């Protein structure tokens, strides 16, 4: 599903080149549940952006679902993001003026799915995350955990190949965070491929495999 070989990424900071990712190799099979664990400044956000086709690598290769992404245009990368990846962010990124249902159907509308079909799929996803009675509510009427569940439903509604989660429990209290991670466990049991980016060892340990990123490299370590 994900095949990254010898990936390197640098940024020009004033007159100095900052080498953020160094010779990264990462292979993820369909149905895997992995965590990329690292401290602030380790390069994990840059790696997430490349996996999510929001940024490009300098050299190496990145194949997503057998598609080599290295030389794609921004429009082509946007299409892959919409078709292949479901994003779950720490701060939910829900549109405050939309209802829960409208937030969830948005990726389908962008894709060109008919409104009736989009509503049907969105309602099914809201039922899956336990919010089928909240479709008419606005985000501010929900708890943080419920808003994250809406974000997960939105990520799932396009039937993506990969769920890419960036610090999915970072804005939640411990009890609510545990509930979200239980939902991830359920989604994994249903066959979803999940990649979690986190600095939290407890979150990482719930995955099948942990990749520890330090100073832009994967290192062998006991967690």
UniProtKB/TrEMBL annotation:
Domain (ABC transporter): give its ranges.
Answer: 2-223
In the UniProt record, the signal sequence range is none
Instruction: Give GO cellular component annotations, separated by semicolons.
Output: membrane protein complex; plasma membrane
Q: Name one GO molecular function term.
A: ATP binding
Kindly name one Pfam family recorded for this protein.
ABC_tran
Alphabetical list of PANTHER family matching this protein = ABC TRANSPORTER ABCH.1, IMPORT ATP-BINDING PROTEIN
Q: What is this protein called?
A: Putative ABC transport system ATP-binding protein
Q: Identify the species of origin.
A: Anaerorhabdus furcosa
- Taxonomy of the source species: Bacteria, Bacillati, Bacillota, Erysipelotrichia, Erysipelotrichales
